[in-house]
Specification:
single chain; C8orf32 fold; Papain-like_cys_pep_sf; Immunoglobulin-like; 267 residues; 5-stranded antiparallel sheet; alpha+beta
């Protein structure tokens, strides 16, 4: 299957920007089942690409400086990715980041009373660690139904779990936190998902991966209740959202920003 992505991130400022720098992670990662990336381009209006490099997670990173005095920045990402049938198994660990590093707690994934209680409620009656992980995924969605507008990019796993709902980012953070409590390296994944019921979307997607002995990394999309399949494009990974965010940046000056995202993923 070949998927086409058209993704526009549009920042509008209410006054001239003195200085701003955006860190962009929007180039898909090659992996088993995801290959032959066709004509993937990132076009910029209102800014200049300063540098492209690969970070310690193997993510392709573009640094974009906003033009001095600009009132808007547009980042357009387009391309096609060839995908084959797969069951969510990424396989053996690769890359410069050591496997034990994915056991490290971060501010967004640090476990507290809520995550520890979640892990304890799972019990031990499972045929395998993978079966336990799927049960954990289902339990998280039961405890925290998908609901937009009640969390944000800085909401921690503990805070989300104590709330009334959350989105894919929150589900991924809770799953990662709990899997690390169980002794499994775990990481955050940002990317694209082709929806079955619509082409236009207003945000990218996120899920988690956990590592199991003798198998390697396996993906878990808590929000949708299954492992990623060939509708998923894997773009960036990291210890949490901050490592894998599609666009993050810094800005100097009093100008306030408005962000609009337009996204199409289709076969």
């Amino acid at each position: 299957m070949r998927l086409r992505v058209e993704h526009t991130t549009h920042y509008q400022y209410d006054g001239p920007v003195r200085y701003a720098l955006q860190q962009v992670k929007l180039t898909p990662k090659e992996r088993p089942g995801q290959q032959l990336i066709h004509d993937w381009t990132i076009a910029i209006e209102g800014g200049t690409q300063q540098l492209h490099y690969t970070d310690h997670h193997g993510n392709g990173v573009d640094l974009i400086a906003v033009d001095g005095g600009a009132r808007e920045l547009v980042i357009r990402c387009t391309g096609e990715v060839e995908l084959v049938t797969w069951d969510g198994v990424i396989g053996p660990h690769r890359g410069p980041m050591p496997l034990w590093g994915f056991l490290r707690r971060t501010p967004l994934t640090r476990p507290g009373r809520g995550v520890r209680a979640l892990v304890s409620s799972l019990g031990r009656d499972f045929a395998s660690d993978i079966e336990r992980a799927h049960a954990l995924s289902a339990l998280i969605l039961e405890k925290l139904p998908y609901r937009i507008g009640v969390t944000d990019a800085e909401t921690t796993a503990e805070a989300a779990l104590a709330g009334e709902g959350g989105v894919c980012q929150d589900h991924a953070h809770i799953f990662i936190s709990a899997m690390r409590q169980l002794g499994h390296p775990a990481r955050y994944v940002s990317g694209y998902l082709m929806m079955n019921d619509r082409t236009h979307q207003d945000a990218t997607h996120a899920w988690a991966e956990a590592h199991f002995d003798n198998i390697g990394w396996i993906g878990f999309d808590v929000s949708n209740g299954h492992s990623p399949d060939r509708r998923y494009i894997r773009v960036a990974t990291g210890l949490d959202y901050r490592d894998a965010a599609p666009v993050r940046g810094m800005r100097y000056g009093a100008a306030q920003e408005n962000l609009v995202v337009q996204l199409q993923v289709q076969q």
